[in-house]
Design goal:
By secondary structure, this protein is α+β, with helices and mostly antiparallel strands. It is 19% helix and 40% strand. The strands form 2 sheets. Strands 1, 2, 3, 4, 6, 7 and 9 form a 7-stranded mixed β-sheet that branches. A two-stranded antiparallel ribbon has the order 5-8. The model has no long low-confidence stretch (mean pLDDT 95).
Length: 140
């Protein structure tokens, strides 16, 4: 059957989490783009609505309780260096409860809240696309 993103384009979701004009980013451990700062997200499971996948992945990766989210874009990432190809639906969350944690240290090594005008490097291609898709009012 093959692996999504490797043997055929995978379907993923990403969630931009904003609080007090800051974005929550995590540093990836594994490909694609290991060592890059990234928004939270992951793959959509078979028969799982994409919005539910975005909320599930974000809650698993951060420990936060995610409230209302809104779809902001669809992006395609072809990451030649890692031989991966993903189509991703991007969402935005401003309604979150709790404090983020490092709940999956095998996947993510660090995290932080960053001003959109002072982002860490390197940023993943996926994160760059998500930030570009934010409503202008959110970008400052």
């Amino acid at each position: 059957m093959g692996r999504p993103g490797h043997d055929f384009p995978g379907l993923g979701v990403g969630l931009v989490i904003l609080r007090d004009d800051r974005i929550l980013l995590y540093k990836r451990v594994n490909p694609p783009e290991a060592g890059y700062w990234n928004i939270v997200g992951g793959k959509v499971d078979h028969m799982e609505p994409a919005e539910e996948a975005a909320r599930r992945e974000a809650e698993e990766e951060t420990g936060l309780k995610i409230g209302r989210i809104e779809r902001i874009a669809v992006t395609e990432q072809i990451i030649a260096a890692d031989r991966q190809h993903w189509m991703s639906i991007l969402y935005l969350a401003r309604d979150v409860e709790g404090e983020p944690q490092l709940t999956e240290p095998d996947k993510l090594s660090d995290f932080g809240w960053f001003a959109l005008t002072d982002l860490p490097t390197p940023l993943s291609a996926f994160t760059k696309a998500a930030i570009a898709a934010l409503p202008i009012a959110e970008r400052g």
